[in-house]
Amino acid sequence: MRPTTSKVTIKRGQAMGVIKSVLPYLWPKDRPGIKFRVVLAMLALILGEIIGVMAPFLYKAAVDGLAPDAGADQTVYLLTAGAVGLTVAYGVMRLLAVGFSQLRDVIFARVGQRALRQLALETFQHMHRLSLRYHITRKTGGLSRIIERGVKGVEFLLRFMLFSIGPLILKLLIVAGIFYFAFGPLYMAIVLVTIALYIWFTFAVTEWRVQVRKEMNDKDTDANQKAIDSLLNFETVKYFAAEEREAMRYDDSMRGYEAAALKTNYSLAFLNFGQAFLITLGLVGVMVLAAMGVQDGTLTVGDFVMVNAYMIQITMPLGFLGTVYREIRQALVDMGEMFDLLGQPQEVVDKPDAKALKVDGGMIEFDDVTFGYNPDRVILAGLKLRVGQGETVAVVGPSGSGKSTIGRLLFRFYDVGHGSLKIDGQDVRDVTQSSVHEAIGIVPQDTVLFNDTIGYNIAYGREGASQSDIVGAAKAAKIHDFVMSLPDGYQTTVGERGLKLSGGEKQRVGIARTLLKDPPILVLDEATSALDTETERDIQESLRGLGTGRSVIMIAHRLSTVVDADKIVVLERGVIVEEGTHDELIKRDGRYAHMWHMQESEEVEGAA
């Protein structure tokens, strides 16, 4: 069970939960090669730190060898030569420390990148497993930003938790021990108190700054969402001459981001100054003690230099600790939001023993189905509907009657609340979702295309489709001639959501895509209601060809598109009020006949 972190801050227990969630990516059970790399990286880390903290001893010996009172005149040459050798050895040790550090990064790089890729893939897959209900209530721009920041946070955490915090703790322990044994407990006490005060101050201020950074992230997400939403609705903005309104909306969000960013910068300045003050205080205290020791003869100049070298070794990573801790806390917040997404439960889940759907004839049966998107509002009430093998059934009715809900339930975007929905006698809740999706083709009212080529969008209907398959589907959908008239043919890009194509052209691409899929069951969800009459008539011919030999559910608003259906069902408030063929329903002079005559009169008035 993954931890969820929906609050603004991450508490310590939640932070540990996030870290535990990352560990399996760092130490995978089924990848011994990755484990070996982690072990090698840790060995390189330890060797690099040990060599690094031993180097100042050579520096001290070199300084003492060069001191004016090192010895008699005839031994000065030997001492100088020895000091030069020690200086060279000091340089070699420094180089080795850096070399092991770089070797550690090289070895660990594959581990980190693999973990990053695996987690990004898992998040992407999980987002596609979530229900339609979840996606229609979330903002795509905000989701993409949360995932982006979360994945980057994982990369940062893997690198710096292991290779910054760990080495720093090891170095502090070794240096504290050296100070105790080489210079006395007072030196060690000053170092430990300085470190303790520094860490306390850094953690306390950073905890406050995390709140400010979270506010800044929220403002950033809001501004990004408004920008994406506005650009996706570019035409709508133009229709209403709302460019200035959109700019002001965006600027309002950016104004909030600006205020939060300024607060972040001011708090950062306070944190940096406080850290510098504490580090300088400890450094001066230790150096004053060492200077006094040199004056009274208990320490050599080399000891003074060594103390200074160790303090520099401590203060540099301590200064970095502030940055690392801030970023780690921020990374935990970002990762917490991402793991909150991963923690979102799937509304529609396959049963453990679910088998693949077997479609023999494509008979569909809604048996006493009751469903509502919210518990307090029923959309379908006791629906009984049967679509026989190869039969075309049209579902008509006013807006909000539940027509599109039938298609969503059939595709299993949602599970029925009561009753059952069966395909060839198999309850869709007892079979795998993927097999249901493979068996059903949908042509929606608004076909949405990928921002790629026409050929790619048609080929999306069946993985591995050949060019001849694509062309064949395009010909069947009567769009091949149009495509060939374009300069780039099937390599023509359609733009975001297919906006470079007209409504009719997009619908034909969608029909070709569904033809290529060749499903035994077809749902036409008001597939021509957004088109003009002439285009609709042209596409109706393609749709009739698409439905040949298949079980078809036609969800329609324009009744002229359903007159050839084997059966027409009139739906009102989730209940079937009439059913029969077109001629039967006209003769009955009921609800369908009333709708038919009303639409006829509207068409006559429109023509006039």
Task: Outline the structure in words.
It is a single chain. By secondary structure, the protein is of the alpha/beta class. The chain folds into two domains: 12-342, Up-down Bundle (ABC transporter transmembrane region fold); 364-447 and 515-607, P-loop containing nucleotide triphosphate hydrolases (Rossmann fold). The protein is 65% helix and 9% strand. It is built from 18 helices and ten strands. It has helices at 12-26, 32-65, 73-129, 132-136, 140-183, 185-232, 234-239, 243-295, 301-342, 403-410, 433-439, 454-459, 467-476, 480-485, 503-517, 533-547, 582-588, 591-607, and strands spanning 364-371, 380-387, 392-396, 418-423, 426-427, 440-443, 521-525, 551-556, 567-572, 575-580. A six-stranded mixed sheet has the order 6-7-8-3-9-10, sandwiched between helices. The protein has a four-stranded antiparallel sheet with strand order 2-1-4-5, with helices on one face. Strand 1 and strand 2 form a beta hairpin. Helix 2 packs antiparallel against helix 3 and helix 8 (243-295) runs antiparallel to helix 9. The longest helix is centred in the N-terminal third of the chain and has 57 residues, at 73-129. The chain is elongated and about 120 Å long.
